[in-house]
TrEMBL record:
Single GO biological process annotation from the record: carbohydrate metabolic process
Pfam families: BetaGal_ABD_1, BetaGal_gal-bd, Glyco_hydro_35
Xref: PANTHER family: BETA-GALACTOSIDASE RELATED (PTHR23421)
Record organism: Paenibacillus crassostreae
Domain Beta-galactosidase galactose-binding: 826-885
Ranges for domain Glycoside hydrolase 35 catalytic: 17-322
GO molecular function: hydrolase activity, hydrolyzing O-glycosyl compounds
The organism's taxonomic lineage, starting at the top: Bacteria, Bacillati, Bacillota, Bacilli, Bacillales
The protein's name in its UniProt record: Beta-galactosidase
Lineage: superkingdom: Bacteria
Residue span(s) of domain Beta-galactosidase 1-like first all-beta: 591-694
Similarity-based family: Belongs to the glycosyl hydrolase 35 family.
InterPro entries: BetaGal1-like_ABD1 (IPR048912), BetaGal_gal-bd (IPR048913), Galactose-bd-like_sf (IPR008979), GH (IPR017853), Gly_Hdrlase_35_cat (IPR031330), Glycoside_Hdrlase_35 (IPR001944)
Amino acid sequence: MHSKEEIVQYDSKSYRINGKQVFLNSGAIHYFRMPREEWREVLVKAKLAGMNCVDTYFAWNIHEPEEGKWNFEGDNDCGDFLDLCAELGLWVIARPGPYICAEWDFGGFPWWLNNKKDIKFRTYNKPYLDYVDRYFDKMIPIISDRQVTNGGAVILVQVENEYGYLADDEIAADYMQHLREGLIQRGIEVPLITCVGGVEGTIEGANFWSNADQHYDNLRTKQPDTPKIVTEFWTGWFEHWGAMSATQKTAALYEKRTLEVLRAGYSGISHYMFFGGTNFGNYGGRTVGASDIFMVTSYDYDAPLNEYGRVTEKYNVAKKLAYFVKAIEGLLLNSVEGVCEDIESRLSKGFTARYREQEDQRIWFVESEKDERETTYLTLASGNTIPVTVKPGAITPVLERVEIVPNVRLTSNTYLLSNEEVEGIHTLIIATDNGERSWVELESEQPIQLDGLVSQQMDFSTDGKRLTLDNYHFNETQVISLIIAKKQFQLIFINGEMAKNTWRVDDHKGIRWALGYPDMNILEDGSIKVALSRSGNGVLHLGKWDTLEAFSDGSVGVSPYVHLDAPEVNVLTTQVAELSLRAGGTSKEAPIGFSELGQPYGHILYTCDFEQGENEKRTVVIPAVQDTIRVFVNGRNQHLIREVGAVCVLLDLVPNQTNHLQFLVQNMGRLNFSPYLGEMKGIAGTIYLDGSTVDIRDQWQYENTSIHLGKVCKVEPGKVIHRTFTLKDQDRAILVGAMIDKLRINGQQIVTNGIQDGVSFQTADISSHIREGVNEIEMCYMKSPIDRLELIAYHSRNELNDWHMQDVSTLERIEDHNREVCGVPSWHTLQFARSTLPEYVHARLKLRLTGMSKGIVKLNGIHLGRYWQIGPQEDYKIPMAWLQDMNKLELFDEEGRSPLRVRLIYDLQSSERWISI
């Protein structure tokens, strides 16, 4: 029995839990990004992939959506999530914030916090910290009660999140110390950690995808006596509307980057994300970097488990590496970087190698610089020269004389997936990619005896104490049984495809292995039971398994497409209702934003009437906007404005009469990552007529040369560039776009906040620095091309006053016009029955919104998220847990597009047949 102080300990090498060294293989999984009905399956799949830990944020805004109204029930029952982790034998790294980033609206802060007087976020600010303390009073006891010291699963708790991106440790000290003490005072007794930036009394981790060595050296310099873990190892990336798919981090590169982490000497990896899930509701955030980086509704993240909980190629990589780490855990955690001065003489040209060692045990990392798969030869410390096959640009691990049990050592040129006793037999599973060979050598102080079939290519030393195997890895599993010192061993050789279909299960029945099953379905009966879909190859079961029962021959499946108007889904009605765009709601001289109106999310309609003279064209300037705007004039849709910060737009008007101007604004998500959280959402402040806008990326002068910042420019960074602009009868001006530091207007310095890497998207009011006629602007060149840099000018006398603002959800609906394209914002209501599927068809359902424009989607009153048909997201998750016998689907479309091409689609794996194990 360990005391509370001894349950979680650490030194410079690793964490120790209950006295045992552990390599933390953690999967980032957020309870709030899926229905609770999916928790068990996702967590079990993480455990089956070798994860021994789960990393989760806690989102303040879902637990206190309205001030003082707390919600810890249903999908928000984070305590139940932690209990489930404990039940499944998964440790937890808890990250309660209060700021979490996570591409989540407002970085996890509740929207109403933005209305508090004198509040400043993420700083030592009393109004802010008073609310943080209230949040901690509710959240931290839930975590504290579930620490391993209290019989739960929580082994580490994080203080804040990535504060080092905002300020250095000295500046952050007062704020971070307040949070650290707040955790301790509320009962946190496991070690406290930070990521990217630290505070006294915590252990710092690093967040990255590449440059593992550099991050390791930084941590070692800063905290030499603590374990080094990757608190966020970015398995993929988030996506935003109008961008390409974020699939650049391939499975092959994921494998290489993981091996780089092991090579550097880390003792833990948290795979961010292991399962990303979905930004249901309006919780997708917005990040800095350009004018409109708004998160899509999917948070698939190109993660090992996709948005629907399906296994991907990255999952196979994560599992292979986690099994490998488990098999050589002791060596990895106790090894040091080796020094080999003659490495070039040990390898073929075009390859490099580094190694880690513990006494005479080594793990080598052989890296290829070749452009095709090739076999090199590596001379080991023992003098043996062995073949090593490496893919182009990849790394292959090589084990040298690793002690698998006392007095028995293994040398191998590929992955070792199992190194443990299963039902009294010490089992080694050795895997290499399809079409490759492995070279394996066992050494023992006692003679090695064969117990069964002889491999076709094996060689015994004359004393029988060394066995060398040169094996081709077939599709069918190969097993070699041995006896060493009266102990049974088995060597199991599998190829890459079989490695994907190989599973290690560790539960109350002990350690079990199943080989030959490509996917799994989780049965919810309170224990880890898995149903694995059987492959066409032979299968192998190690350990205590229940009876196997197979289903049909595969003749029963599910069509991947289910049209909303197809008979099998029994559509009852399809209704269209356009919105009456009449003024109503709140009236003000100038527009106000979402928070000021007390509206958290959704759409607001801004309306104003003004008299127009003889002209048919006129501009309008919106000096402050942070969301998309759809512009209607006299009920006609004229523009969709995507630019934020400030805009000037040309209107088509009816001359000599009153014109009806309307802005339909959707809250597209608050900043989740920025030095300046809490931006206004919607439109706020005075709006002006008769402005002008000029793209000022061109006509910059540099050494008598004119350059265009929208193009690649050969200018040395830091060099001063300048240009002029002319103002006539305009006393106000805004500069908006990608600005560069050391910006000056007419010789006067302009303060630009939040500059990162020399360039930052900014909106700067330069009105106090301008003059009538010619003005000069100068700045230091940093980089190009840049997407936007505009000068918007107007006169302060041209105010547009008397505005009406209304929540779109309260607007009157005019029913059923049945037009192909309504042209005005419309609600579409569709009803369908839930399909009856065989129990063994593990279906996943998504909605494809072909033909729609932009808006929101609801299922049975549950907000599924925003949609915008500009990519990269095409399909939207429909959780099976939220379906009823009869279902109502509601679409709010800003353009009133017809839903005739909208479809429900089963994902590609929904026709799998299952057997239970």
